[in-house]
Write a structure and sequence with these properties.
The complex is a heterodimer of chains A (about 180) and B (about 150). With about 180 residues, chain A is mainly alpha-helical. Chain A has a domain at about 35-150. Chain A is about 40% helix and about 10% strand. Chain A has helices at about 35-100, 165; strands at about 115, 125-130, 150-155. Chain B is mainly alpha-helical and about 150 residues long. Chain B has a domain at about 35-130. Chain B has helices spanning about 35-50, 50-60, 70-105, 115-125, and strands at about 10, 10-15. In chain B, strands 1-2 form a two-stranded antiparallel sheet. Chain B is globular. The two termini of chain B are about 35 Å apart. Classes of the chains: A mainly alpha (about 180), B mainly alpha (about 150). Chains A and B meet through helix 1 and strand 3 of A and strand 1, strand 2, helix 1, helix 2 and helix 3 of B. Chain A: Its main location: mitochondrion.
């Protein structure tokens, strides 16, 4: 076997032509990641800054409103007290009138001995126990209201509805005239 | 606080025509303002009637009984009426502008800062009362005095 000279595969003498790109070529383009990161956080931070400001202001507005209402409490409560006392007085008078025949009955009083109420919440004519054993004020739970009482008016189910604003009765419509009560139609 | 609910029954309403007997309580005229004027003058009321309000609230703290504080309550109401009369004499136009604005803006105070400022200035000049929101954080301008509010 004749020996042949060993031919090794080598680049052409003088190197490969420049047109063949065998190296990585990734130039740096645009701002660096750190800058983009910082910019994104900057934009978000600016937005959050105003969100926080707005939240704080809204909290202050809520507090203003709350104190506005708190300031008015004594005024409204004083008025309410008078109305409540007036109603309870009238209700007690009404109940006293009805229960006048029962000896020892105190109208609208849950803390004084009540004839007929026995120990252990049983009905017993011989006993008279208070409903509540307490020093504190107790608001009456039930009120006696006779059917024929002039303090009772028909239930007004439409209270708080907008029905008569949107659909007023014919005599309250703008085109109502006594001659033509149904209006221009 | 004793709360009061309207006497509404299933089959009717409880309207009581009898007045308060004079021996329980001497008659006192009621304030009779609607919510908007009251909201408008609330802080001045708190300032002007502070003594009576504090008395009344301390009294209410003692007992739940509505009869317990009738006297203090009358003082509060009389003081409020006094303030209302003074406001009407001195700052009627500004007050009306402010509460009408509140009425038209869902009772949001921040919608009516312009009117409020005029009203507050007038009340301060004539009656010497200022609007102070209690418990404003240290070193912060009150929300009604902000130059550039975010909500307006």
């Amino acid at each position: 076997m004749a020996t042949q000279p060993i031919v090794q595969d080598l680049p052409p003498s003088g190197g490969f032509p420049e047109t063949i790109q065998y190296k990585r070529y990734l130039p740096r383009r645009g701002p660096s990641g750190l800058v983009i990161f910082a910019a994104a956080f900057g934009v978000m931070g600016y937005g959050w800054y105003w969100v926080a400001k707005a939240n704080a202001e809204r909290r202050e507005l809520r507090r203003e409103k709350a104190w506005n209402r708190i300031s008015l409490v004594p005024l409204l409560q004083a008025e309410t007290d008078r109305d409540l006392v007036r109603r309870l007085e009238a209700a007690a008078a009404r109940e006293g009138e009805q229960m006048g025949s029962v000896a020892g009955w105190k109208a609208l009083d849950l803390k004084s001995p009540t004839p007929g109420v026995g120990k252990g919440a049983v009905y017993d004519k011989a006993q008279a126990e208070p409903i509540y054993h307490t020093e504190r004020y107790v608001n009456p739970t039930y009120l006696f209201m006779p059917w024929g009482s002039d303090a009772r008016i028909e239930s007004q189910w439409w209270r708080g509805t907008k029905m008569f604003l949107k659909n007023p009765p014919y005599h309250e419509r703008p085109d109502f005239t006594p001659e033509n009560p149904l209006g221009g139609q | 606080m004793t709360t009061h609910r309207e006497g509404t029954f299933v089959e009717g309403l409880w309207v009581e025509k009898a007045g308060l007997t004079p021996e329980t309580a001497p008659p006192v005229p009621e304030v009779g303002c609607t919510s908007a004027p009251l909201e408008s003058m609330a802080f001045f009321f708190a300032d002007y009637c502070k003594k009576y309000n504090d008395d009344y609230v301390l009294c209410k703290n003692e007992s739940q009984d509505p009869r317990h504080c009738l006297k203090e309550g009358r003082k509060v109401t009389r003081c409020a009426l006094d303030l209302i009369n003074k406001l009407k004499q001195n700052c009627d136009q500004q007050w009306t502008n402010h509460w009408e604005c509140l009425d038209m803006n869902n009772h949001q105070l921040f919608k009516c800062r312009k009117e409020e400022k005029e009203f507050n200035d007038c009340v301060f000049k004539r009656l010497g009362l200022t609007k102070v929101i209690p418990e404003t954080p240290e070193g912060q301008t009150s929300v009604h005095l902000k130059e550039k509010p975010l909500y307006k």
